[in-house]
Automatic annotation (TrEMBL):
Cross-referenced Pfam families: JmjC_2, WHD_ROXA
Required co-factors: Fe(2+)
InterPro entries: JmjC_dom, NO66-like, ROXA-like_wH
SMART domains, sorted: JmjC
Name recorded for this polypeptide: Cupin domain-containing protein
Organism annotation: Marinobacter daepoensis
Domain JmjC stretches: 96-224
Alphabetic keyword roster: Dioxygenase, Iron, Metal-binding, Oxidoreductase
């Protein structure tokens, strides 16, 4: 695969993914950044966009963080150098940025977090730090000097007096300067420090996995909303006990059985996970269609050869169960049975749906109903 500097996706996953950094020169030859610094500043002024400014020396205080949205005037009050603007979820707001994700489809859709942009004038950086997720740092405009290496964790010493987790005594192992089109892959926990050499935009394609805390909390939350969760523990075999204060081993056994039964349900686990892993990060990402469509409208559009695509912020995934296929789109679940099952892989394979393949289903009610739902929910649209 060209984007990986001559190694295959298989080799990348085997040798680098979650293991060690990789510098890829000209991963995207001739890359032109789809957004300008002014456009990033404009996005950072919008309510729905998550943005931050990091200033290295903010009136004497180290590495200060300011959360957006900002006013346009805020940008004229910034120092000439040594600050960074971060804009989160750029794939959702800029279609050309979302298209970059098509190069990363060898990693499952559910692993994708988002694409963040950082803009910095000369000297700007967010400080030496480590992240808990895999990231591809694509140099989009200007140049950035990256120092990276060494594994860090919560015990690594940090700079005091800043809300950011900046490493205080860390040297890194390697230094490279990236030019537009170059890319650096970093696994979780590897320290890194990127300093802008000139007017610089870097795109972070981030792949965040849930924490065990997320998994436990969210799955038990899901289970607690199922019908069986409303049942009370029963004890028809209750025996007289000497001390009313005793909680006997039989009670603990019963609890143990109930919890194991609930947690051991793989079908529920799969259904929960698909919804959890595709849930939109904010309410602004998947917005219902202005004009709801009817199945006939979808059929007509497919016949006319129109191109359907995922909403830029949408997440599609599916899981084959024994007798049905669960399709997950933006935190919603659709159970497909029988002839409808192949629709799930078809809808999940690429951001632009394979319209030739869809046309074969164009008088299938299940497909048209499903597409209508997805369209009205705001997860797909006609390009
Ligand atoms: C940046 O692009 O300035 C920061 C990205 C990162 O270090 O994760
Ligand atoms: Co980082």
């Amino acid at each position: 695969m060209d984007m990986l500097g001559g190694i295959t996706a298989h080799e990348f996953l085997r040798d680098y993914w979650q293991k060690k950094p990789l510098v890829i020169r000209q991963a995207f030859p001739g890359f032109e950044c789809p957004v300008s610094p002014d456009e990033l500043a404009g996005l950072a002024c919008e309510e729905a966009v998550e943005s931050r400014i990091v200033i290295e020396n903010d009136s004497g205080k180290p590495w200060q963080l300011h959360n957006g949205p900002f006013t346009p005037e805020r940008f004229s009050q910034l120092p000439a150098e040594d600050w960074t603007l971060l804009v989160q979820g750029l794939d959702h707001w800029v279609p050309d940025i979302a298209d970059l994700l098509d190069h990363f489809r060898f990693i499952p859709n559910w692993r994708l977090d988002d694409i963040m942009a950082s803009y910095a004038p000369k000297g700007g950086s967010v400080g030496p730090h480590y992240d808990m997720y895999d990231v591809f740092l694509l140099q989009a405009q200007g140049h950035r000097r990256w120092t990276f290496g060494g594994h860090c964790d919560h015990t690594s010493p940090r700079v005091q007096g800043t809300p950011l987790r900046i490493l205080s005594s860390w040297d890194g192992e390697e230094t490279v300067t990236l030019a537009p089109g170059d890319m650096l892959y970093l696994p979780p926990g590897v320290g890194h420090y990127g300093v802008a050499e000139d007017d610089c935009i870097t795109l972070s394609i981030g792949f965040r996995a849930p924490t065990l805390d997320d998994v436990l909390t969210s799955f038990t939350d899901y289970l607690s909303q199922t019908d069986s969760a409303a049942h009370h523990l029963d004890d028809p075999d209750l025996q007289v006990q000497e001390n009313p204060g005793t909680i006997g081993p039989d009670v603990i056994d019963r609890l143990d059985t109930v919890i194991r039964e609930q947690l051991g349900d793989r079908r529920n686990l799969a259904l929960w996970f698909g919804q959890f892993a595709t849930a939109p990060k904010s309410m602004d990402i998947v917005v219902p269609a202005d004009e709801p469509a009817e199945p006939d409208d979808l059929a007509e559009a497919i016949r006319c050869g129109e191109q359907l695509r995922w909403n830029e912020g949408s997440r599609f995934a599916y899981h084959d169960l024994n007798d049905e296929t669960a399709l997950f789109v933006d935190g919603e679940q659709y159970l497909l049975k029988g002839d409808a099952r192949p629709l799930a892989p078809l809808l999940c394979a690429a951001s632009r749906l394979d319209m030739t393949a869809l046309a074969e289903f164009s008088d299938d009610e299940a497909l048209l109903g499903l597409l209508t739902n997805l369209y009205n929910q705001g997860s797909i649209y006609f390009e």
